[in-house]
Amino acid sequence: MSNNKLNPFERLFKLQATVGKLVLDGKRDPELIASIFQKIVDENSFETVAATPTTAKWEVRDGVIYVTLPASDGTTGQGWIKRLKSKGFRLSEYAEGLLQSSDFKPTTGIVHRLAILSAKFWSDSERITRTIRAEGKKRKWNELNPEAICILRENFSDEDLEKMGFWYIVGIHEPIEVYGGPHFLYAYRRDDGRWLLTYWAYPDHYWQDGSAFAWSLPQVQS
Question: The pTM is what?
């Protein structure tokens, strides 16, 4: 049995549900009812599922979100496909193609530190791949290893992305050829699930203002 405690709202819900069931079952025995209620109050008769703690860490400075990810563990692209799917994430066909590319290079023991810049930094007319990559170079940020987006997707919930104010975070990495065109990998939140997707990395491609872009800061060996 779990040692996790029910919060007051959970106890109230279970009390309400139990009362309804007892009424439907026609049970009126005062001692039985009192015993059931006491067990709920004491939190000893219901096993609860602990919320998965987030490992997401970020801070905002001067309009830039700085993220520190858990250390890489050598997971291959194929390994990421299996790992994310087993946890309920959804991957597009193109994302799977990118992860299976020979250009996807896993690392071990690297702590990826990211700088994330909102798409709102650029005007609508300027928000194209060429100018976005140029801004990263201007700030002396490095283009990242795409595995960092896999680690970010695994450790950042859709609620985390929403708190940041983004629908998706695009990894600015050396584009990887997938089905005849260059692509970036990105983490996406939407109503039908937690996604890992890719999109075109052509220089003149336009991006929506609900996006953000991630670069790599100097990495740390774990």
Answer: 0.74
